[in-house]
Protein backbone atom coordinates (compact mmCIF):
# COMPACT_ATOMS: atom_id res chain seq x y z
CA UNK A 1 0.00 0.00 0.00
CA UNK A 2 1.33 3.44 -0.89
CA UNK A 3 2.53 5.65 1.91
CA UNK A 4 0.35 8.64 1.21
CA UNK A 5 -0.01 11.62 3.49
CA UNK A 6 -3.16 13.69 3.94
CA UNK A 7 -3.40 16.01 0.91
CA UNK A 8 -2.29 19.58 1.53
CA UNK A 9 -4.86 22.12 0.25
CA UNK A 10 -1.96 24.18 -1.07
CA UNK A 11 -0.73 21.16 -3.04
CA UNK A 12 -3.92 20.58 -4.99
CA UNK A 13 -2.49 21.96 -8.22
CA UNK A 14 -4.95 24.85 -8.34
CA UNK A 15 -2.09 27.35 -8.70
CA UNK A 16 -0.77 25.84 -11.92
CA UNK A 17 -0.55 28.39 -14.68
CA UNK A 18 -0.07 26.21 -17.75
CA UNK A 19 -1.50 22.86 -18.85
CA UNK A 20 1.93 21.23 -19.19
CA UNK A 21 2.54 21.71 -15.46
CA UNK A 22 -0.67 19.91 -14.61
CA UNK A 23 0.17 17.09 -17.02
CA UNK A 24 3.61 16.64 -15.47
CA UNK A 25 2.24 16.77 -11.91
CA UNK A 26 -0.30 14.06 -12.73
CA UNK A 27 2.44 11.98 -14.37
CA UNK A 28 4.62 12.23 -11.25
CA UNK A 29 1.65 11.46 -9.01
CA UNK A 30 0.96 8.30 -10.99
CA UNK A 31 4.39 6.95 -9.97
CA UNK A 32 3.28 7.24 -6.30
CA UNK A 33 5.95 6.30 -3.72
CA UNK A 34 8.41 5.04 -6.35
CA UNK A 35 8.82 8.45 -7.92
CA UNK A 36 9.97 9.16 -11.48
CA UNK A 37 13.47 10.07 -12.66
CA UNK A 38 14.22 12.86 -15.12
CA UNK A 39 14.94 10.30 -17.85
CA UNK A 40 11.64 8.52 -17.21
CA UNK A 41 9.73 11.79 -17.45
CA UNK A 42 11.44 12.71 -20.70
CA UNK A 43 10.77 9.27 -22.22
CA UNK A 44 7.05 9.57 -21.57
CA UNK A 45 6.57 11.81 -24.66
CA UNK A 46 3.40 13.35 -23.18
CA UNK A 47 5.33 16.58 -22.68
CA UNK A 48 8.19 17.87 -24.87
CA UNK A 49 11.45 16.70 -23.28
CA UNK A 50 12.94 20.19 -23.61
CA UNK A 51 10.33 21.51 -21.15
CA UNK A 52 10.75 18.92 -18.37
CA UNK A 53 13.59 20.62 -16.48
CA UNK A 54 11.83 23.98 -16.39
CA UNK A 55 8.51 22.42 -15.37
CA UNK A 56 10.00 20.34 -12.53
CA UNK A 57 11.76 23.43 -11.21
CA UNK A 58 8.47 25.31 -11.25
CA UNK A 59 6.58 22.51 -9.50
CA UNK A 60 9.25 22.30 -6.77
CA UNK A 61 9.02 26.05 -6.15
CA UNK A 62 5.26 25.69 -5.76
CA UNK A 63 5.83 22.90 -3.22
CA UNK A 64 3.92 20.38 -5.32
CA UNK A 65 6.76 17.89 -5.89
CA UNK A 66 10.04 16.98 -4.16
CA UNK A 67 13.31 15.31 -5.08
CA UNK A 68 14.47 12.15 -3.30
CA UNK A 69 17.79 10.39 -3.83
CA UNK A 70 17.81 6.65 -4.40
CA UNK A 71 19.63 4.57 -1.78
CA UNK A 72 21.14 2.38 -4.51
CA UNK A 73 22.30 5.32 -6.61
CA UNK A 74 22.70 8.60 -4.76
CA UNK A 75 23.30 10.41 -8.04
CA UNK A 76 19.84 9.61 -9.38
CA UNK A 77 17.01 11.84 -8.17
CA UNK A 78 13.39 10.73 -8.12
CA UNK A 79 10.52 13.21 -8.29
CA UNK A 80 7.58 12.49 -5.98
CA UNK A 81 4.33 14.36 -5.43
CA UNK A 82 4.40 16.01 -2.00
CA UNK A 83 1.58 13.83 -0.66
CA UNK A 84 3.67 10.65 -1.04
CA UNK A 85 6.47 9.35 1.18
CA UNK A 86 9.34 7.54 -0.62
CA UNK A 87 8.95 3.76 -0.71
CA UNK A 88 11.42 1.02 0.23
CA UNK A 89 12.80 1.03 -3.33
CA UNK A 90 14.28 4.45 -2.58
CA UNK A 91 14.97 4.43 1.17
CA UNK A 92 15.99 0.77 1.60
CA UNK A 93 13.25 0.16 4.17
CA UNK A 94 13.16 0.42 7.95
CA UNK A 95 16.71 -0.86 8.46
CA UNK A 96 18.24 2.18 6.79
CA UNK A 97 18.87 5.67 8.15
CA UNK A 98 19.58 8.32 5.51
CA UNK A 99 20.52 5.56 3.07
CA UNK A 100 22.91 3.80 5.48
CA UNK A 101 22.24 0.34 6.91
CA UNK A 102 21.72 0.61 10.69
CA UNK A 103 24.07 -2.25 11.61
CA UNK A 104 24.24 -1.43 15.32
CA UNK A 105 20.46 -1.64 15.66
CA UNK A 106 20.35 -4.96 13.80
CA UNK A 107 23.12 -6.48 15.93
CA UNK A 108 21.42 -5.28 19.12
CA UNK A 109 18.17 -6.97 18.09
CA UNK A 110 20.01 -10.18 17.22
CA UNK A 111 21.57 -10.26 20.69
CA UNK A 112 18.17 -9.74 22.33
CA UNK A 113 16.72 -12.54 20.22
CA UNK A 114 19.42 -14.95 21.41
CA UNK A 115 18.82 -13.89 25.03
CA UNK A 116 15.10 -14.68 24.69
CA UNK A 117 15.87 -18.13 23.31
CA UNK A 118 18.44 -18.73 26.07
CA UNK A 119 15.81 -17.99 28.71
CA UNK A 120 13.67 -20.70 27.12
CA UNK A 121 16.53 -23.11 26.40
CA UNK A 122 14.59 -26.13 27.67
CA UNK A 123 11.85 -25.67 25.11
CA UNK A 124 11.35 -24.17 21.70
CA UNK A 125 9.95 -20.67 21.18
CA UNK A 126 7.22 -20.16 18.62
CA UNK A 127 7.29 -17.53 15.91
CA UNK A 128 4.16 -16.05 17.49
CA UNK A 129 5.95 -15.55 20.82
CA UNK A 130 9.02 -14.01 19.17
CA UNK A 131 6.87 -11.63 17.11
CA UNK A 132 4.81 -10.76 20.20
CA UNK A 133 7.92 -9.66 22.08
CA UNK A 134 9.55 -7.65 19.31
CA UNK A 135 6.36 -6.00 18.08
CA UNK A 136 5.45 -4.92 21.62
CA UNK A 137 8.84 -4.21 23.21
CA UNK A 138 10.92 -3.11 20.22
CA UNK A 139 8.13 -1.64 18.09
CA UNK A 140 9.10 -3.81 15.12
CA UNK A 141 6.72 -5.07 12.48
CA UNK A 142 6.12 -8.81 12.09
CA UNK A 143 8.13 -8.72 8.85
CA UNK A 144 11.07 -7.01 10.58
CA UNK A 145 11.02 -9.64 13.32
CA UNK A 146 11.07 -12.39 10.71
CA UNK A 147 14.05 -10.70 9.03
CA UNK A 148 16.02 -10.69 12.29
CA UNK A 149 15.23 -14.38 12.87
CA UNK A 150 16.14 -15.27 9.28
CA UNK A 151 19.43 -13.42 9.69
CA UNK A 152 20.27 -15.50 12.77
CA UNK A 153 19.29 -18.72 10.98
CA UNK A 154 21.66 -17.82 8.13
CA UNK A 155 24.36 -17.09 10.73
CA UNK A 156 23.71 -20.61 12.08
CA UNK A 157 23.12 -19.18 15.55
CA UNK A 158 19.52 -20.38 15.74
CA UNK A 159 17.52 -22.99 13.85
CA UNK A 160 13.98 -22.88 12.52
CA UNK A 161 12.01 -26.08 13.15
CA UNK A 162 8.42 -27.20 12.82
CA UNK A 163 6.61 -28.75 15.74
CA UNK A 164 5.81 -32.45 15.71
CA UNK A 165 3.76 -32.12 18.90
CA UNK A 166 6.11 -34.33 20.93
CA UNK A 167 8.58 -33.75 23.79
CA UNK A 168 9.79 -30.12 23.69
CA UNK A 169 7.06 -29.43 21.13
CA UNK A 170 4.30 -30.74 23.40
CA UNK A 171 2.87 -27.27 24.05
CA UNK A 172 2.85 -26.24 20.39
CA UNK A 173 0.61 -27.10 17.48
CA UNK A 174 1.89 -29.69 15.01
CA UNK A 175 3.45 -27.87 12.08
CA UNK A 176 3.89 -24.59 13.97
CA UNK A 177 7.12 -22.71 13.22
CA UNK A 178 9.48 -22.60 16.22
CA UNK A 179 13.02 -21.47 16.99
CA UNK A 180 15.81 -22.76 19.19
CA UNK A 181 19.52 -22.11 19.65
CA UNK A 182 21.86 -24.29 17.62
CA UNK A 183 24.18 -24.78 20.59
CA UNK A 184 24.91 -24.05 24.23
CA UNK A 185 26.17 -20.64 25.24
CA UNK A 186 29.90 -20.28 25.57
CA UNK A 187 31.81 -18.49 28.31
CA UNK A 188 31.52 -15.07 26.69
CA UNK A 189 27.75 -15.35 26.42
CA UNK A 190 27.61 -15.94 22.67
CA UNK A 191 25.73 -18.79 21.10
CA UNK A 192 27.99 -21.55 19.82
CA UNK A 193 27.06 -22.30 16.23
CA UNK A 194 27.26 -25.61 14.41
CA UNK A 195 24.92 -27.76 12.36
CA UNK A 196 24.89 -30.50 15.04
CA UNK A 197 25.71 -28.38 18.09
CA UNK A 198 22.39 -29.31 19.68
CA UNK A 199 20.80 -32.74 19.89
CA UNK A 200 18.94 -33.34 16.63
CA UNK A 201 16.28 -35.52 18.23
CA UNK A 202 14.05 -32.58 19.20
CA UNK A 203 13.50 -31.63 15.57
CA UNK A 204 13.25 -35.21 14.24
CA UNK A 205 9.82 -36.03 12.77
CA UNK A 206 10.34 -39.73 13.64
CA UNK A 207 11.14 -39.23 17.34
CA UNK A 208 7.93 -41.03 18.33
CA UNK A 209 9.10 -44.19 16.55
CA UNK A 210 12.63 -44.11 17.98
CA UNK A 211 13.62 -46.66 20.64
CA UNK A 212 16.85 -48.51 21.59
CA UNK A 213 15.73 -51.76 19.89
CA UNK A 214 13.53 -50.27 17.20
CA UNK A 215 13.99 -49.91 13.45
CA UNK A 216 14.82 -46.27 14.21
CA UNK A 217 17.22 -46.04 17.16
CA UNK A 218 20.07 -43.84 18.45
CA UNK A 219 22.57 -46.53 17.49
CA UNK A 220 21.51 -46.51 13.82
CA UNK A 221 20.70 -42.79 13.49
CA UNK A 222 23.27 -41.09 11.25
CA UNK A 223 22.32 -37.63 12.55
CA UNK A 224 22.74 -38.63 16.18
CA UNK A 225 26.14 -40.15 15.36
CA UNK A 226 27.25 -36.95 13.67
CA UNK A 227 26.16 -35.00 16.73
CA UNK A 228 28.25 -37.30 18.97
CA UNK A 229 31.26 -36.75 16.70
CA UNK A 230 30.84 -32.95 16.72
Automatic annotation (TrEMBL):
Record flagged with keyword Disulfide bond: no
Origin superkingdom: Eukaryota
Pfam families reported in the protein's UniProt record: RNA_pol_Rpc34 (PF05158)
Principal location: nucleus
Gene Ontology BP terms: transcription by RNA polymerase III
Presence of the UniProt keyword Nucleus in the record: yes
One GO CC term, this protein: RNA polymerase III complex
InterPro entries xref list: RNA_pol_Rpc34, RNA_pol_Rpc34-like, WH-like_DNA-bd_sf, WH_DNA-bd_sf
Localization per Swiss-Prot or TrEMBL: Nucleus
Keywords tagged on the record: DNA-directed RNA polymerase, Nucleus, Transcription
Location of region: Disordered: 1-20
Family statement drawn from the similarity comment of this UniProt entry: Belongs to the eukaryotic RPC34/RPC39 RNA polymerase subunit family.
Record's protein name: DNA binding protein
Organism, scientific name: Arabidopsis lyrata subsp. lyrata (Lyre-leaved rock-cress)
Amino acid sequence: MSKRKRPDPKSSGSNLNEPHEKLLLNLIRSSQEKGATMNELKRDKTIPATMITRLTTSLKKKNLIKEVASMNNRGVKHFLAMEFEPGKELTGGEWYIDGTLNLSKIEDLKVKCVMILERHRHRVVTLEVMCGYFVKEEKLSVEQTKEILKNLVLDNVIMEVKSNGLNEFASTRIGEVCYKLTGKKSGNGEARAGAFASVPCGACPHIGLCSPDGVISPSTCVYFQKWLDF
